[in-house]
């Protein structure tokens, strides 16, 4: 069942999306923190995000963060460790695990294939 959201709700989800994208280099906010920040409730954020973006805010954050890491790997001379630090990962192993979970390849392999193409 597809829910219809008011214009206010649509604007809210758009603002949360923008907030997430602008804060990818910071640790992610919990649903509770997002709800407080945007003066709404956790349920509305979780269900609205799932409906509009097909994932939870945390999944969206992780996907966008890995997307940004891929851009940095492709377009900068930063080392993988530097990228992991720049993007706010707690450690290189955590970055590598998150990257592989999202892309199905390690950051090292991704760097190798994008540099050789």
Automatic annotation (TrEMBL):
It comes from the Bacteria. Residues 14-113 form the HTH araC/xylS-type domain. Pfam families: HTH_18. One of its GO terms (molecular function) is DNA-binding transcription factor activity. Keywords: DNA-binding, Transcription, Transcription regulation. InterPro entries: Homeodomain-like_sf, HTH_AraC, Tscrpt_reg_AraC-type_HTH. This is AraC family transcriptional regulator.
């Amino acid at each position: 069942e597809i829910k219809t959201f008011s214009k206010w709700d649509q604007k809210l989800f758009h603002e949360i999306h923008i907030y997430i994208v602008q804060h990818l280099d910071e640790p992610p906010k919990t649903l509770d923190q997002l709800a407080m920040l945007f003066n709404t409730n956790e349920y509305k954020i979780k269900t609205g995000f799932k409906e509009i973006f097909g994932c939870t805010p945390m999944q969206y954050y992780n996907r966008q963060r890995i997307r940004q890491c891929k851009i940095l790997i492709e377009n900068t001379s930063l080392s993988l460790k530097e990228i992991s630090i720049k993007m706010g990962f707690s450690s290189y192993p955590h970055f590598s695990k998150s990257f592989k979970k999202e892309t199905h390849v390690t950051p090292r392999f991704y760097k190798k294939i994008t540099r050789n193409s």
